[in-house]
């Protein structure tokens, strides 16, 4: 009888183990946990006093200092500024004399979109990577925060010379320090699943004056390139519905049920053809050893000036191995 009870107990344990594994597997496929709830963090941090840390002198440039009056090295969202949710549009040139390039932080499978998760708000996007994969900074800038931070785990926040900020969460290791200058493509950490994460992935956020917006308004995740060399901030930039993009919301293409693929973040068939056609008209080259702008110019029959223009870079830009550069 004792042996029979043990057998039954083992069987029940096995069933629960299998069911638990299936539940976790389903969660990883449909919605990997990551980041922290936007509303909860905003409510908790807004009560804290403004940071007394001085803004680094390198950020004393018009494209940055007219939008920020504080430099907090401890919190993600704590600012003395009020985000511009009303008023005239703000045009942010993504490239200037200080911010000269863009590099996709991780070129991996798109796991989870920005926006509402039931009652919670997912303030960024999740991108698959392997443990220890390098995570690169998107634009030139200065590290504002580099520390373990609640649900984000090991987290880095960078303020860029174009006025934006980006956040990189769940890192297994941080490779930069606060107030360190970084160039687009520099490795700022290694991939992992620290904090509230159920698998190895990068939680990536884009922000302006502390307020998050869908990175898809800025980046084409199919080509790993910027959609435009200028980003316009308006009242409609900050919608929090699932996979919110103003241009799509305005024509009712985005909803939580049928028009958006949660795994790939693509719009429905009505706009898929147009997107596919647009992607096919562009051509990219992955940087390898020995590649230079002059060499690419000769190889693809395009001038160095044209390459620089369509990528928003300078002729002196150092090409990072493994990154993509648009040549058409």
Which range does the strand content fall in?
Answer: 15-25%
CATH third-tier fold name of the largest domain: Glucose Permease (Domain IIA)
For the biggest sheet, the summary is: 8 strands, antiparallel
- CATH architecture annotation of the largest domain: Distorted Sandwich
Indicate the percent of residues in helices: 10-25%
The beta-strand count equals 19
CATH class of the largest domain: Mainly Beta
Assembly state (oligomeric): single chain
Average pLDDT confidence is 78
Radius of gyration (Å)? 22 Å
Shape: globular
Low-confidence stretches: 11-30, 251-280
**Overall domain count:** 2
Structural class: alpha+beta
- List the secondary-structure elements in sequence, H or E: HHHEEEEEEEEEEEEEEEEEHHEHHE
The CATH superfamily of the largest domain bears the name Glucose Permease (Domain IIA)
Task: Report the end-to-end length measured between terminal Cα atoms.
Answer: 76 Å
Helix run count: 7
Descriptive overview:
The chain is α+β, with helices and mostly antiparallel strands. The protein has 2 domains: 234 residues, Distorted Sandwich (Glucose Permease (Domain IIA)), CATH 2.70.70.10; 43 residues, Membrane-bound Lytic Murein Transglycosylase D, Chain A (Roll). It is 22% helix and 23% strand. The protein is built from 7 helices and 19 strands. Strands 2, 5, 7, 8, 9, 11, 13 and 14 form an 8-stranded antiparallel β-sheet that branches. The protein has a 3-stranded antiparallel β-sheet with strand order 6-12-10, with no helix packed on it. The longest helix has 29 residues. It is globular, with a radius of gyration of 22 Å. The protein starts with a helix and ends with a strand. The relative contact order is 0.14. About 15% of the residues have low confidence.
């Amino acid at each position: 009888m004792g042996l029979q009870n043990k057998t039954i107990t083992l069987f029940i344990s096995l069933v629960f183990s299998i069911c638990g594994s299936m539940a976790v597997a389903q969660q990883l496929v449909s919605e990997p946990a990551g980041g922290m709830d936007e509303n909860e963090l905003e409510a908790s941090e807004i009560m804290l006093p403004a940071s007394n840390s001085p803004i680094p002198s390198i950020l004393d440039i018009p494209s940055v200092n007219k939008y920020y009056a504080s430099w907090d090295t401890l919190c993600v969202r704590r600012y003395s500024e009020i985000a511009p949710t009303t008023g005239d549009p703000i045009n942010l040139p993504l490239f200037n004399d200080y911010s000269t390039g863009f590099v996709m932080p991780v070129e991996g499978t798109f796991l989870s979109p920005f926006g509402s998760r039931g009652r919670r708000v997912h303030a960024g996007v999740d991108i698959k990577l392997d443990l220890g994969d390098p995570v690169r900074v998107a634009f030139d800038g200065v590290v504002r925060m580099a520390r373990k931070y609640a649900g984000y785990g090991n987290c880095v926040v960078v303020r860029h010379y174009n006025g934006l900020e980006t956040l990189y969460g769940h890192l297994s290791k941080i490779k930069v320090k606060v107030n360190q200058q970084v160039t687009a493509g520099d490795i700022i950490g290694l991939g992992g699943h620290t904090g509230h994460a159920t698998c190895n992935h990068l939680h990536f956020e884009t922000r302006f004056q502390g307020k998050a917006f869908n990175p898809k308004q800025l980046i084409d995740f199919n080509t790993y390139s910027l959609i435009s060399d200028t980003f316009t901030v308006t009242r409609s930039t900050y919608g929090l519905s699932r996979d919110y993009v103003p241009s799509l919301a305005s024509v009712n293409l985005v909803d939580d049920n049928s028009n958006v693929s949660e795994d790939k973040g693509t719009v429905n068939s009505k706009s898929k053809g147009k997107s596919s056609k647009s992607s096919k008209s562009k051509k990219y080259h992955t940087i390898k050893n020995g590649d230079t702008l002059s060499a690419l110019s000769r190889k693809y029959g395009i001038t160095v000036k044209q390459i620089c223009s369509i990528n928003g870079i300078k002729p002196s830009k150092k090409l990072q191995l493994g990154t993509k550069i648009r040549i058409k």
